[in-house]
Each structure stands twice: as structure tokens, then as C-alpha cells.
């Protein structure tokens, strides 16, 4: 399966991220890609930093996503179910 499908983003956005001159993806898109690439927590923090973001333990969205990464649970749809349950934005949309 393609990375963009595992990240729950469309091919057009994925292409824009890869080829777009100066395009900066949102934090939730970067996290969706980290999940799709099955990055560990350190690698996820590195890719977030490259995009100018970081995980915060004071943000419910970040805590939920970090939990899944730390426990190596990389199914974006399962993560989105939990995010939805806590009324948080969904990954990759």
C-alpha cells in the first residue's frame, strides 16, 4: 500500500508535499505521514521539528497520537477513531 493511503491523505496533497516549492504541511498531516512511515517517537519528533512543530503533553491531540506511536500502533484509522471519541481533529484529512 502506498504511504499516502496509509496516511489517509490524497495523492494530490502527497505530491504537493513532495514537490511543492515552499509548501508546509499541517502538523496533523506530518503526524499522519509519521504514522504511515511507522516512525518511532524520536523520529517523529525529528520530522515534526523539520516542519516547525513539536508534540506537547498539554495538547490532548498530541497525547493521543503519541500514545499510539510509543505503543507501535500505526493504523491511522484506529487512531482517528480515538481522536474522534475525544473530539479532536483527525489525521490526514
Task: Looking at this protein, list some descriptive labels.
93 residues; mainly alpha
Mean pLDDT: 91
Order of helices and strands: HHHHHH
State the end-to-end CA separation.
18 Å
User: What is the percentage of strand-forming residues?
Assistant: under 5%
Rg result: 12 Å
Q: How many DSSP-defined strands?
A: 0
The main pleated sheet reads as: none
Low-confidence stretches: none
**Form type:** globular
Number of helices: 6
Provide the helix percentage: 55-70%
What structural class is derived from the secondary structure elements? Answer: mainly alpha
Task: Itemize the secondary structure elements and their pairings.
Layout: H1 3-6, H2 11-19, H3 27-36, H4 41-50, H5 60-70, H6 76-85
Please provide a written account of the structure.
The protein has 93 residues and is mainly alpha-helical. It contains six helices and no strands. The protein has helices at residues 3-6, 11-19, 27-36, 41-50, 60-70, 76-85. The protein is globular and about 35 Å long.
